[in-house]
Design brief:
This protein is α/β, with parallel strands linked by helices. It has 2 domains: about 140 residues, no CATH class; about 180 residues, Rossmann fold. Helices cover about 25% and strands about 25% of the residues. It contains 7 helices and 16 strands. The strands form 4 sheets. A 6-stranded mixed beta sheet has the order 9-8-7-10-11-12, with helices on both faces. The chain has a 4-stranded antiparallel beta sheet with strand order 6-13-2-15. A 4-stranded antiparallel beta sheet has the order 5-4-14-16, with no helix packed on it. The longest helix is centred in the first third of the chain and has 20 residues. The radius of gyration is 21 Å and the shape is globular. The N and C termini lie far apart (about 60 Å).
Length: about 325
């Protein structure tokens, strides 16, 4: 005869499977913003978030994660590219190099975020500018009331048009007066956005890039920017708006550039060919950013050697789920002192 706890556990698992079959299978839209929910176990208490030094250094002196705790934001999606929520600590294993680490903190709460929007205002955006502005507004609608934002626009060079603010209306108003013209200094804009995060209030930081082409006017190289984002503890998301054909070599390489830069940080890039899809995709990113798991661990390697340490998050999903994909940052630089 089953005891109460065994019966409850089996019943909960049956409910999970029934819910998944009923709610996930019929949904076929690739860009749906609906979540896939897994029934979580009740957490004993919310983890205390450690303090993180917001100091930022450029690629000459790498950004260093705090000595006591490494935080790893993690996003899980299903084969239809939808969020999977409701997993718990036991569904994750985390490795630094080849060594499995003990997970000390685990959270899936909506914590405030410091966010920078990097907005392409080059001449090729002129026919898409209204849709792109709408996408920014839709992204802001997903925000937490405590979130703070800044905005950088770029064409021949990047320009900060709005400092950190809690006023979404202020950024929207400033965006209305921008005019699309010039070339595309995308890499320089990313550099400015990462540098601006030195002033961020919150430990969780993110950049959203909206652009329609590859870089053709930056001082910084792709290699320099990749090194920089590896050193910064910032999630980067991107929406690339591309035509069905690429008139230049820079535009042909644009999707790969955004994908490489975002995946280094644990974010990801979305490629679309219809400006009408901008608002839906930006909403999806906003929801995803606020429904991440955050895993914290104290590295077993205590050395303050300033070296790059690779991170690998492995998923142990409940039985019955389809193959799931894990998005997490690829590593961090250890402290040097």
């Amino acid at each position: 005869m089953l005891c109460g706890k065994q019966f409850s556990a089996r019943l909960s698992f049956a409910v999970v499977l029934i819910f998944f079959v009923c709610s996930v299978v019929p949904l076929l839209a690739q860009n749906s913003t609906q979540d896939v929910h897994i029934q979580p176990r009740v957490q004993a208490s919310a983890p205390k978030e450690p303090e993180i030094d917001p100091a930022f250094k450029t690629h000459t002196k790498p950004y260093k994660v705090g000595v006591d705790m490494v935080l790893v934001p993690v996003t899980i999606t299903d084969p239809l590219n939808r969020l999977v929520t409701g997993l718990d600590r036991d569904n994750f294993n985390l490795f630094e190099g080849k060594d499995q680490q003990e997970i000390k903190t685990f959270s899936s709460e909506d914590a405030p975020v410091s966010i920078g929007v990097i907005f392409d205002m080059s001449g090729s955006m002129s026919s898409k500018i209204e849709r792109a502005r709408e996408a920014v507004i839709q992204f802001f609608k997903t925000s937490n009331p405590q979130d703070e934002f800044f905005m950088i626009t770029f064409a021949d060079k990047p320009e900060e048009i709005a400092d950190f603010t809690n006023s979404v209306e202020d950024i929207q108003a400033r965006l209305l007066y921008t005019v699309a013209r010039g070339r595309t200094a995308l890499l320089d804009a990313i550099y400015l956005g990462v540098s601006k995060m030195r002033q961020a209030k919150y430990p969780k930081k993110a950049l959203l890039i909206i652009s329609d082409g590859g870089d053709n006017h930056s001082r910084y190289t792709e290699g320099e920017i990749k090194s920089m984002v590896k050193e910064a503890d910032i999630l980067i998301y991107a929406i690339g708006i591309y035509d069905h054909y690429f008139p230049t070599e820079e535009e042909r390489l644009g999707p790969a550039l955004l994908s490489d830069v975002t995946e280094l940080t644990g974010g990801r890039a979305f490629t679309i060919d219809n400006p009408n899809d901008l608002a839906d995709v930006s909403t999806k990113i906003g929801i995803e950013l606020r429904n991440q798991y955050v895993i914290g661990y104290r590295p077993k390697n205590p050395a303050h050697d300033g070296k790059w340490r690779k991170i690998k998050v492995k998923l142990l999903p409940p039985k019955g789920l389809p193959p799931l994909r894990v998005y997490a940052k690829t590593g961090y630089y250890a402290p040097s002192e």
